[in-house]
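Thread title: Can someone regenerate the structure for this chain?

I was given the following input by a collaborator and told the matching structure tokens would be attached. They weren't. Posting the sequence so someone can regenerate them.
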Amino acid sequence: MFFRFLADLIVVIHLLFILLVVFGGLLVWWRRYLIWLHLPAVIWGVGIELLGGVCPLTPLEVRLREGAAQQGYQGGFIEHYLIPIIYPLEMTRSVQIGLGLAVLVVNLAIYAWIWRRRRSG
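Best answer:
Regenerated them for you:
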């Protein structure tokens, strides 16, 4: 039970990190000092995708699930709703590169918007 709880917690943390990477620029608009949190997260997230790496949270979650004697992602909110978002079934190398580039474009657009708003205001 404890290992399953920890594995589910890792999934939630993983999702929150992904949301930070993709949309964290909006937090920077709200509080400029958060750029020091967001930029390294973006570099990490885009780098993992473009270089074909694996986030260290993924093997940690797998080990915790093995410790909980779970086979796969069955039953429950986390497994049903969050796992497919974080681990798409059709994740090919080209999809991974596309996701990395999409995250980069989204963040460039957010930062360009912030820069224009601060410059004009």
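DSSP finds five helices and no strands in the chain.
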